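**User:**
Everyone, produce one record:

**Assistant:**
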Amino acid sequence: MKNAELGDLAQCDLCRMGVRQHYDSDGTVVELDLREASVAMVPAGLRWYVAGDGTAVNLGHADPETVRVCHHDACHSTSADLAALRTFWTVPSTAIGPLPPGVNSHHEIHEVLRRAPTREQARSIACPTCDADPGLPCTGPAGEQRSATHRQRTTAYRRARWQTWLPGTPAPTRNDVRTVSCPACRAPAYEPCHDPNGDTRLANHFQREQALLNPDQPERHLLATEPAGPPRATTKAPEPDERPRSRCGGCGAVILLIGRALLDGLCKLCREEAAELAAETHG
């Protein structure tokens, strides 16, 4: 979707889903839905386009292949003009629920999305590995109850949460993030990130994901089109008030690099799951 990353992320005051705020040529704020719609489903006058400078442009009777839609028309309005579109678009997952109240800015929405889900949250959806029903714990090969949640279930929850709060905006995979070079360790595109000692990391640096999600801000990120040097080793210790962070090599959640996370690069839930799987394998 062209220019999809432009505009400010905000929250709909009714359904509490993510929207993009733009200004039209008159300076009026227009909140566009994050999803793209087929022009056949959107009547003339309700079709929008985002220009390269982020301005929302009403297309009138123009009929490109796909268009954007004012979120108010798709969410608040009961007009029959967009009935077919509302039926076509996926209904947000009730298991995930809406964004927390007061989360309105781009930074706040992505900060909530980066939080690791709790075990109860991950269990709110069915497990794609063992077919455990929502609300029930995962089971092992013999049907025994597992204390840890399957990693695939946690990942499925994170993707469902992303698609519910930011519909039409797919959550980037680890390999997706690696299509741009890393502004933190200067790892080239398609190569894994490195820690300060030059060792390969399972997880990508947070700054690398931001480089992928915000390609319109090259001054803040090192993009794949720019030359990238070799990984830079540094012995500079973090400031006393700074705690080093990374992403879990299993589920991608932001974790503090302390204790056992320094050795395995995993969050507590993924570490428990790995230990349980190892026990099952050797048992």
Q: What stands out?
A: The radius of gyration is 21 Å. The longest strand covers residues 18-23. Confidence is low (pLDDT under 50) at residues 216-235. The chain is about 25% helix and 10% strand.
